Amino acid sequence: MAAYDFDILVIGGGPGGYVAAIKAAKEGKKVCIAERAKFGGVCLNEGCIPTKTLIKTANTLHEVKHAASLGIEGVAPESLSVSMKKLQERKKNVVQTLVGGVKGLLRGNKVTIIEGNATFVDAHTADIAGKKFLLNTQSLPLVLP
Which CATH number does the domain housing residue 110 bear? Predict the structure, then answer.
């Protein structure tokens, strides 16, 4: 049997990929994960998490503007505003923190992290030799005719 650098090479660091990599590592496998863009996938970096961060600010602003209806006095709704610069910075920090958490979980479970493309060379080689591969790459919608 050929010697491989890793038991499993996971290609794609989205939620399916990083969870599978951690699970395999916990089962004693030598695991490597390669991600060409951002660990955590679209939801964490561009979709769900950033959106929820923005919505939290909007909801908080709405509640504060209507604080008087809850018996809270001293709030001047006309003086409230949102700093888009600070809001975007907060969103960026939330995403960076969670991406850092994903990488921390991978490192904590002894998964080798590669930030870059993994390219297949032959049946067992994708820049790094792996006995098995898990492809977890982003899908695109198909528009039917």
Answer: 3.50.50.60
